[in-house]
Write a structure and sequence with these properties.
- It holds the Pfam family DUF1996.
- Residues 1-18 form the signal peptide.
- This is DUF1996 domain-containing protein.
- Residues 33-277 form the DUF1996 domain.
- The chain has 345 residues and is mainly beta.
- The termini are far apart.
- 8% of the residues lie in helices and 23% in strands.
- It has one domain.
- The strands form four sheets. Strands 1, 7, 8, 10, 11, 12 and 16 form a seven-stranded antiparallel sheet that branches. Strands 2-3-4-18-9 form a five-stranded antiparallel sheet, with no helix packed on it. A five-stranded antiparallel sheet has the order 17-5-6-19-20, with no helix packed on it.
- The structure holds 2-acetamido-2-deoxy-beta-D-glucopyranose (3 copies).
- One 2-acetamido-2-deoxy-beta-D-glucopyranose is lined by residues 92, 94, 96, 248, 320, 322, 329.
């Protein structure tokens, strides 16, 4: 039965190989960013990271992470990739901030926090006939940018969860009203690769987004980026329940959630991917005519939850953090430096 819980394909009469979908528990929550700010300890803002335990301030593109990591928080035990996003905070009336907890996809078992990861072949409901070329060791990419301050990132959206199964509608900015089951952040990466570069200076130009939006057929890849790769997507469930009482929200009625890069609208939502599947496991899965019989190895929830990486940054990120007083007011966190750094740009 473990297989069944990893795939949604079984629930539909639709094709047997639409996509890989699986959960990854939280690996670490800290200020590191080996793609955008390699070597910098701490990086500008807090991230929540899932995947393999080779995660560090620097991950040399010449290194095959799939060979180096020794455990992963993902249900597929050969997936040592790292997946990360910014962290969501609640902003109280008195100017204090508190980290919003994450919870796992209800369909995927009792992982601790983390995210749901997809590798989509053609679209959410179809598998197409195209050959999917999977990523090479060292490959990395970023979708979205913390500097963005307007709508228009098609695959980067939010879902206001009425219950854990709500999937529509999606919005480009944070929901304006309390969401009973929390906020789901959706991150879809582009699916066309230039076929040559493992990375690019802005971590985006080696990829091309056909602009069709999340989970839809990606469309043909242009000559500049001719190689069709699986569309990687993340879903992160932020449990806002404890903050849903509107009397806690700002007096002007605005919504109180803010990304760790100090973004209150949500347009700066972004996500990072660093490939790390072992050997050709992902390619074999994508080539298989039925994902459920690819032979991909899985591991127990207990093993996924056990894998972790200690923070390289000595600071408290939980408790109520008082930005205006430039210090943390959480319990035991007073070693911490300047709270404005947590909310870096
Ligand atoms: C991260 O790199 C440091 C050296 O910069 C090393 O001491 C540490 O063990 C590494 N951590 C992991 C999880 O590989
Ligand atoms: C700020 O507001 C939060 C939420 O109401 C509360 O828990 C916290 O104690 C307050 N902090 C201060 C310094 O008053
Ligand atoms: C969300 O948070 C609330 C309040 O802290 C908690 O009771 C509930 O179990 C959490 N929901 C999930 C799905 O983790």
């Amino acid at each position: 039965m473990k297989w069944v819980s990893l795939f949604l394909a079984f629930a539909f009469s639709a094709p047997s190989r639409a996509y890989l979908r699986f959960g990854c528990a939280t690996l670490s929550v800290q200020r590191l960013d080996p793609i955008v700010e390699p070597g910098k300890i701490p990086s500008a803002h807090v991230h929540q990271i899932v995947g393999g335990n080779y995660f560090n301030a620097t991950i040399d593109p010449k290194i095959d992470v799939g060979e180096k990591a020794s455990c992963t928080t993902c249900s597929f035990s050969e997936d040592f990739s790292n997946y990360w996003t910014a962290v969501l905070y609640f902003r109280a009336r008195n100017g204090s901030y508190k980290r919003v907890p994450q919870y796992p996809n209800a369909l995927l078992g009792s992982l601790t926090g983390g995210m749901t990861i997809y590798y989509i072949q053609e679209s959410f409901n179809s598998n197409g006939k195209q050959k999917m070329t999977t990523f090479k060791p060292g490959f990395r990419m970023v979708a979205g940018s913390p500097a963005n301050n307007k709508a228009g990132n098609k695959g980067l959206t939010y879902t206001c969860l009425k219950d854990v199964m709500t999937r529509f509608p999606e919005t480009a900015e944070f929901p304006k009203e309390p969401c009973p089951a929390g906020i789901m952040a959706n991150h879809h990466f582009p699916a066309c690769w230039d076929g040559k570069n493992l990375d690019s200076p802005n971590h985006q130009d080696h990829m091309f987004d056909t602009g069709k939006g999340g989970f839809s057929v990606a469309g043909s890849c242009p000559a500049s980026h001719p190689v069709r790769v699986p569309q990687v997507a993340f879903e992160t469930m932020w449990n806002t329940t404890q903050f849903n009482d509107k009397s806690l929200w700002p007096e002007d009625g605005s919504q109180p959630f803010v990304w760790s890069h100090d973004d209150r609208k949500g347009y700066g939502t972004h996500s990072d991917y660093l490939f790390g599947w072992k050997g050709d496991a992902l390619q074999r899965a994508m080539d298989s005519s039925a994902l459920v019989s690819t032979g991909l190895k899985t591991q127990s929830v207990a093993l996924s939850n056990k894998c972790a990486v200690q923070s390289s940054v000595k600071e408290e990120i939980d408790g109520w953090m008082d930005i205006s007083h430039y210090r943390f007011i959480g319990s035991g966190g007073l070693e911490v430096s300047d709270a404005t750094e947590i909310f870096g740009q």
